[in-house]
Amino acid sequence: MTHLTLDKVSVHYDGQPAPAVERVSLDIGKSDSGRGDFVVLVGRSGCGKTSLLNVAAGLVEPAGGLATVDGRPITGPGSDRAVVFQNDALFPWLTARENVAFALRLRGVPADKRARRADELLSLVKLGDAGDKRIWELSGGMRQRVGLARALAAEPEFLLLDEPLGALDALTRERMQTTLLDLWAAAQVGVLMVTHGIEEALVLATRIVVLAPGPGHVVRTFETHFGRRYAAGEPIRAIKADPAFAAARAELTDAIFEGEAA
Ligand SMILES: Nc1ncnc2c1ncn2[C@@H]1O[C@H](COP(=O)(O)OP(=O)(O)O)[C@@H](O)[C@H]1O
Ligand SMILES: [Mg+2]
């Protein structure tokens, strides 16, 4: 098991009177033989979700506490952690395969191996037939899949996703949720993801961490099992129709809006 750990991490941006995040602890485990953790951060806007993801990515330095991978302090971005943002830039004039192959080239994968590996990664995100398509020919959901395939090219231990599905229409978004679960199950990565979708959090997470602002702190942690049920073969629609799912949604909604003035 490999662990990405934030231990009582605080974030304080230069020139700001108050910290953005105070003493947040998170742990994302990644197993070499089975599924890792799928940790989802939820909470109202401004509660520090992106700040925490950026600490994990090594883009923001904590003002207090410690961020580590297997005990080694995170001092910057690394190929062990791949980040996908909401509107990640692909090269529009290249094909899907070339976009992924570019990431492989940066990793030092020899030229003769790149195309095949790129196709394998595209298959993993269910874009096996689209390798020859140029980015401008692809829908938003397909582009986001290419972005995920490109992130996986680095063979990361952890995927860090900041509202990766936020720009997609509802139907595409639902389909991408199962793609993410398939990918999580197949690629054996640990995932830290930010979303503002309550249902999305429940469908995907093995653990949901609810944050509240002023400064950002953890108010609740839920261990959930809906994503594991999908990974074990249960249809997503059946899972969402389960009364336990509705109950969990109500409880999570309460936790997010608790303490907020009506
Ligand atoms: N680069 C920055 N400089 C100064 N303040 C920032 C910066 N990034 C975020 N903040 C502030 O930190 C708080 C948390 O922001 P953020 O992590 O983006 O929250 P979330 O992603 O949950 O909406 C907010 O008050 C935001 O305005
Ligand atoms: Mg954010």
TrEMBL record:
It comes from the Bacteria. CDD domains: ABC_NrtD_SsuB_transporters. The keyword Nucleotide-binding applies. Its EC number is 3.6.3.36. Coiled coil: none annotated. Transmembrane segments: none annotated. It is an enzyme of class 3 (hydrolase). Residues 4-238 form the ABC transporter domain. It holds the Pfam family ABC_tran. SMART domains: AAA. PANTHER family: TAURINE IMPORT ATP-BINDING PROTEIN TAUB, TAURINE IMPORT ATP-BINDING PROTEIN-RELATED. Belongs to the ABC transporter superfamily. This is Taurine ABC transporter ATP-binding subunit. The gene is tauB.
